[in-house]
Write a structure and sequence with these properties.
141 residues; globular; 6-stranded mixed β-sheet; D-tyrosyl-trna(Tyr) Deacylase, Chain: A; alpha/beta
Length: 141
């Protein structure tokens, strides 16, 4: 699994003009990608890492200050540009594999006590955010 994590002061995701998920206070925006051999155990490890990641103000984590997370599926995190200028998506898991694992990350975060908002898997989403810092980190498991 791969995640791009951004510390934000606010963030939202819109589908067809309707806001589907939003956080209106400091927290984390997480773009989550899945590859073919990822497992539910990796999803749980990613959730734990996100919940405890100390990148909020004062080196706090979401678990320390009950900060919200907005988790959005993002298959393009596994783009391969090795050949030419057109990305290959072959490393990204197909929807039937990826969607349950992204859902598992969200559920594991909620089980830890997190407030989690989400996008809509597979939809054309418009993501709006105010990056705080900016702080952007890539997490690979």
């Amino acid at each position: 699994m791969r995640a791009v994590v951004q510390r934000v002061t606010r963030a939202s995701v819109t589908v067809d003009g309707e806001v589907k998920g939003a956080i209106e206070e400091p927290g984390l925006l997480v773009l989550a990608g899945v590859t073919h051999d990822d497992t539910p155990e990796q999803a749980a490890r990613l959730a734990a890492k996100l919940w405890g990641l100390r990148i909020l103000d004062g080196e706090k984590s979401c678990s320390d200050v009950a900060a919200p997370l907005l988790v959005i599926s993002q298959f393009t995190l596994y783009a391969d540009l090795a050949k030419g200028r057109r990305p290959s998506w072959s490393a990204a898991a197909p929807g039937p594999v990826a969607e349950p694992l992204v859902d598992a990350v969200v559920q594991a975060l909620r089980d830890l006590g997190a407030r989690v908002e989400t996008g809509v898997f597979g939809a054309n989403m418009k993501v709006s955010l105010v990056n705080d810092g900016p702080v952007t980190i890539v997490v690979d498991l």
